[in-house]
Amino acid sequence: MENEKGKIKLAILSFSILLMGIIGIAGGLSVIGKHFSNLPQTSIQLLISLPCILIIVFSFLAGKLQEYVSKKTLVIIGILCFIVGGTLPAFISSFTVILVLRAILGVGIGITQPLSSALVVEYFEGDECSKVMGQQTAAQMLGCAVMVLLGGYLAVIGWQTIFYLHLIGIISLIIVLICLPHDKPARNAAAEGAPAGKVNLSGVYGWVITMFLFFISGQIFSVFISFLVESQKLGTPAQAGQTLMFFALGGFLMGLVFGKVATSAKNFTLSIGLFLLGISYLMMAYAPNIAVVYAGSLVCGFAFSIVMPCVIVGASQSVDAFSAPMAISVVLCAQNLAQFVSPYIATPIAAAMGGDVNKSAYLFAAALGIVMAVWAVFWGIAKDRKQQHLAA
What we know:
By secondary structure, the protein is mainly alpha-helical. The protein has 2 domains: 1-189, MFS general substrate transporter like domains (Growth Hormone, Chain: A, Up-down Bundle); 193-392, MFS general substrate transporter like domains (Growth Hormone, Chain: A, Up-down Bundle), CATH 1.20.1250.20. 77% of the residues lie in helices and 0% in strands. It has 14 helices and no strands. It is found in: Cell membrane. This is Putative niacin/nicotinamide transporter NaiP. Residues 7-384 form the Major facilitator superfamily (MFS) profile domain. One of its GO terms (cellular component) is plasma membrane.
């Protein structure tokens, strides 16, 4: 049994490294832009933003498809979309066709993103579930770091070469084919407390709002960091790019120990992650040098790897077992929607605050994170009291 669980965990982690694959080419956008010099910068940026829209749509559809199609089959389809949509642009010269292929990449990530969490919830329970969810987040961060680093090196060779980084999906595909079973755990065969075949999401909406607001704040890091470093004269564009590596490192390290953190902090785990987010943004906003920005990026990674698994586990536990996959899909839809709209919300607010708009964006995000953290403390106290009352 333990050996079987080990194989399942390996399969989940193997395709979790692909989930941040959209930003793998981020370091090479300027190189791609030079090749397509007749196109405006906003068109080049569609290579990143267009897949995000497809992720929103298909992460929701994946939640419904899981009711009818084997999760292994869906994962395989998602990985194939990742490989095909991610790699074929290396052989294409038409920007329009490349955009279509990037959309296929978004479909693949949109399918696999909710499945990675749904499989953890299905096959693991209690503290073990939290532990594996943390490891799954760590795998995402590791994949992010590897693809960004690899993408930077490949971009030096040529604009088309950078797309080869998506071939990493072949490794994931092989592991999934070998290790992930087609069968469904017996405990999820029917929903408990609701008629079989009927999804009930009434308990998940608080988690949806939490994830949405978290990523309104959380997305500020990746969108504004290079501009902050430049406007505050803290370092070079290359050094600004390295902040993502520190972010991924922090997320990876925290993901490895998230299970222990959740076991110790219990109902206050969420508030710790949100406080760390606010603190990390204040560190970066008032950083006197690039070293402090790196430290803030590391802490920001800690925050992400606490809040994300905490919200996903909370969402899955707020509904019956049959509804859990759809609950996770809805929460991840909120995440991707927030990532898409965050700049459009933060930029006008930061401009209204006055001063350097990039620093103000970080201060706005820090304030939002800290307000959410205070709310999470009161939520944790209330949940503690409720559990003590039920135990009495």
